[in-house]
Amino acid sequence: MGIFDQDVSDQNSLCYPSLYKPGQQNLLFNKRQFFLCTLQGLGTSFLLFFIPYGAFSVMVKEEGSHFSDQQAFAVTIATSLVIVVSVQIGLDTHYWTVVNHVFIWGSLVAYFAILFAMQSDGIFGIFPRNFPFIGTARNCLSAASVWLVIVLTAVVCLVPGLAVSFLRAQLFPTLTDKVRCLQQSRKRRGPREQNLRRGRRTSSRRSAYAFSHQQGFGELITSGRNMRRMNTYLERNQ
Amino acid sequence: MMASSYNAKEEDGHNSGASNNGGAGVVKSKKPDNTAFKQQRLPAWQPILTAGTVLPAFFVIGLIFIPIGIGLYVTSNNIKEYEIDYTGADINDACYNCAKNFSWNSTMPCVCSVPFTLEQPFESNVFMYYGLSNFYQNHRRYVKSRDDSQLNGDRSALANPSKECEPYRTSEGQPIAPCGAIANSLFNDTLELYYIDSNGSRNMIPLVKKGIAWWTDKHVKFRNPGGNDNLTVAFQGTSKPVNWRKPVFEMDPSDPENNGFINEDFIVWMRTAALPTFRKLYRIIQKKSSTTPTLPRRVQIEPGTLTLRDDHYPCELQPTPNIADTPQHNRN
């Protein structure tokens, strides 16, 4: 999944070569960044345990049967964890291809599928000693209060990270952020406008031609049509 | 795949497979194909965190969560709860004598009464819980000390329980049914509720003991060996857990649907609690008609009493039992 992530397109990477500086200077992956990641992981683990812990000390189902049991607690925490991790990965992904969509939504779906499969009647019938969590997911995840706890935990874990990355991009934008913004605004303005601008720019960049009574070969050369033919000729003879 | 077809002559291993197949004649190009997949030009959504997206998102989250929070807070404040501690630690407590003089192998049950008054009447269904504090049902070795095959009615597991149940696996040369420390420490206090009306007569309040366990537990996870009839025969060759007074097939002889392993009190106990201070549902008091309160308050009646017939816990564990009555809140 990381292979498909792309913050800046390849053309813009060539236009702004100083984008490669953070990579050379190890700015994005060094001991400090690793330490901060570890700290974030610790903080998230802390929240993932203690928010459901606080909720489960007094949780009751709607028909009154007690709910604060160990298996329901485990299922709640595991579900919150998977959701927090998936959403965090989603927030860090800058380039959502089909593959990214498949893996992120697919992992959520696979988690729930496997959860319900492992806690189903069928598998308990075959291996009773190994699958003691029978029925827990069905009973636990059908209670609205459990989903409220999961959503609360996910929001509390994710919103600070989101706020920090948003503020950092707005207040201290790196070159990468600026180029991404530029890229997006160019895409939004549309391809037609870009061609017009390019036409005007190249006409001012071109050195003076003496032949002004007809169109001349300017358009032919600047469109690059004869250049491309040259390239394929070279390729064929390599 | 790349490693197996590595050729020392190839500098970049791009089309090494293709080159090998090509043979000595045509040298294929090493450039990767100009497809969208290999040139990283797949159509993609490229979101950027701008102020225009993030700030409204924060506001929306706040707008959704604050009313939910207020609603939950108001609802939970409206739940009426009454807790009675019957540990009997203090000499002035009603159950002090029971707690002091009782031990796990006493034959006579100990009875103590705790009178109480309700401030307000309880409406709708009232749930009666028993609670324990400092009872670590979430201790790892304790949680593992059970045999789910045996509790599912498997005959071979009945005769030969799992090794996890040690040391509560066999007693007097016979396998224990149900085995394990969880089953052995079954909570067996009996609680009865009476109310005393204006002319001083005691009326017992009917307590419902069905419907307190999860449906999946009662009908799928816990099964009696060989069906629900003739449990005495089915459990022959096994012995009762060490700290129990009566064997499992005498848990509720009057009701075959609530006897043996599928006894609901037993099932509720076997579902281990997550925290050391916990409550488990004991009984339900059904609501009467919509106009009369289920548990009336003191103005109309004399104080209610709580009588305990006690197979109490030994003092070493120091759990502090208490009961709590909670009316159901949001189904009126």
TrEMBL record, chain A:
Parts forming coiled coils: none
Molecular function via GO: ATPase-coupled intramembrane lipid transporter activity; metal ion binding
Occurrences of domain P-type ATPase C-terminal (ranges): 1-174
GO CC terms in record: plasma membrane; trans-Golgi network
Membrane-crossing segments per the record: 34-60, 72-91, 103-127, 147-167
Localization: Membrane
Tree of life domain: Eukaryota
Keywords from the UniProt entry: Magnesium, Membrane, Metal-binding, Transmembrane, Transmembrane helix
Protein name per the record: Phospholipid-transporting ATPase ID
Gene that this polypeptide is encoded by: ATP8B2_3
UniProtKB/TrEMBL annotation, chain B:
Location of region: Disordered: 1-25, 146-171, 312-332
Cellular component annotations (GO), alphabetically ordered: apical plasma membrane; endoplasmic reticulum; Golgi apparatus; transport vesicle membrane
Bias-annotated ranges (Polar residues): 319-332
Superkingdom in the source lineage: Eukaryota
Membrane topology: Multi-pass membrane protein
Chain segments annotated as transmembrane: 48-74
UniProt-listed GO biological process terms: phospholipid translocation
Keywords: Cell membrane, Cytoplasmic vesicle, Disulfide bond, Glycoprotein, Golgi apparatus, Lipid transport, Membrane, Transmembrane, Transmembrane helix, Transport
Signal sequence segment: none
Location in or out of the cell: Apical cell membrane; Cytoplasmic vesicle, Secretory vesicle membrane; Golgi apparatus; Membrane
Entry keyword annotation includes Glycoprotein: yes
Family per record: Belongs to the CDC50/LEM3 family.
Name of protein: Cell cycle control protein
The organism of origin for this protein: Liparis tanakae (Tanaka's snailfish)
Gene (UniProt): TMEM30A
